[in-house]
From TrEMBL:
This is Ketoreductase domain-containing protein. The keyword Oxidoreductase applies. Pfam families: adh_short (PF00106). Keywords: Oxidoreductase. Belongs to the short-chain dehydrogenases/reductases (SDR) family. Residues 3-182 form the Ketoreductase domain. One of its GO terms (cellular component) is membrane. Coiled coil: none annotated. It comes from Melghirimyces profundicolus. GO terms for molecular function: oxidoreductase activity.
Length: 260
């Protein structure tokens, strides 16, 4: 039986690839994003699914969307919260409004959509929520404080949701390392991350496939494997991990300064 899967942030990057994978597997993606034209083109290209223009920062629009989806399709099996964005910049160099904007989209956008669908999941006796977070939701990173804060909040919300509603509603959290998407705004990753991290750059298609797998057995998963081990090391030896990370970034900054 094909699944009806609602995907936010579906018009580009990871969300677009998740929707493509779902369509190719015979599932029915409900593609949600602000860019209505791109969503229509995706639906026409794949010959399946449905598109719903919506801004996840608008609570009223989110509730109207969920009401319309349930009216038309009768059910949603999986919610994939993928909508989000990030910008690089020092903590003091980033306006506080930018902190709020990332929280509104990356964290509260997920909260709004999840809370709107949660009563439906509980009524039908089952449902799955897959939240696309980041390794930045498990470990701090220089020059990404607003983004990191929003993703930490997302991971905490996901864990709380699991504790409150499992096993009826199962919650999975995907925490990828750096992904080659518009997040980099055309910049070379090695100018934004130390080489150790830049070498682990993921492809959006690979992340999408991991998200699909997570629907089968929701849990917290870190990719790639090397960063998964790094996060385990962080849990076991937090002080040492932070010292090593600080040293890694300081050496990288020296290298950048020397190459100018």
């Amino acid at each position: 039986m094909s699944r009806i899967v609602l995907v936010t942030g579906a018009s580009k990057g990871i969300g677009k690839e998740i929707s493509r994978e779902l369509a190719g597997r015979g599932d029915f993606p409900l593609m949600v994003a602000r860019n209505a034209e791109t969503l229509r083109e995706m639906k026409e290209e794949w010959g399946t699914g449905e598109s719903f223009p919506c801004d996840v920062t608008n609570g009223e629009a989110v509730q109207e969307l969920v009401t319309e989806v349930i009216r038309r399709f009768g059910r949603v099996d999986v919610l994939v919260n993928n909508a989000g964005y990030g910008k690089f910049g020092g903590a003091l160099d980033t306006p506080v409004e930018e902190y709020g904007s990332m929280m509104e989209t990356n964290y509260l956008g997920t909260v709004r959509m999840t809370l709107a669908l949660l009563p439906h999941f509980l009524q039908q006796g089952k449902g799955r929520v897959i939240n696309i977070a980041s390794v930045a939701g498990l470990s701090g990173s220089p020059n990404l404080a607003p983004y990191v804060g929003s993703k930490f909040a997302l991971v905490g919300f996901s864990e709380s949701l699991h504790l409150e509603y499992a096993p009826v509603v199962q919650v999975g959290v995907l925490c990828p390392g750096p992904v080659r998407t518009s997040f980099f705004q055309g910049k070379e990753p090695s100018r934004l991350f130390p080489a150790l991290l830049a070498r682990e750059l993921l492809d959006a298609k690979a992340v999408a496939r991991e998200a699909i797998r997570l629907m089968e057995r929701p849990r917290l998963k870190v990719i790639p494997g090397s960063l998964s081990w790094a996060m385990r090391f962080r849990r076991w030896f937090p002080d040492l991990y932070l010292r090593l990370t600080r040293h890694l970034y300081r050496e990288w900054e020296k290298e950048k300064a020397g190459s100018r």
